[in-house]
Fold this protein.
Amino acid sequence: GIFKGATINTPSMLAVEDYIGALEWSKSVGGVEGLIKISQDNLKAIEDFVAENSSWISFLAEDPAIRSSTSVCLKLDLTPEQIKSLVSLLESEHVAYDIGGYRDAPPSIRIWCGSTVETEDVKALMPWLKWAFEEVKK
């Protein structure tokens, strides 16, 4: 079989084919400019939500000039334990996975907003964030 060392070039050819598929998809959404636009639209969806809910949620990177449009990190008006509960609650509802902040970062959540995520999905997550916040704040 191909994964037992008999044909060592085949796995690398699978990777090349996967890469070709990724490049074709990238081209179909507008190339580099299209990929950047998707992530910026995703960030905008979160910015709009944060602006409407600023009493309990804010950006970890307070200065918009240094804010990432791909790995968006948010602070919540919750204790570190409550943030862990919020992350677990969203996962148990099959809404979001692996959104806990980085281990060495201040207590926070992070949302992947790269171009592989559709803006409508980011928008759909926002009410869930509010719901989970309200649930753990009880």
In short: The helical segments are 9-28, 31-52, 80-92, 119-137. The first strand starts at residue 57 and ends at 59.
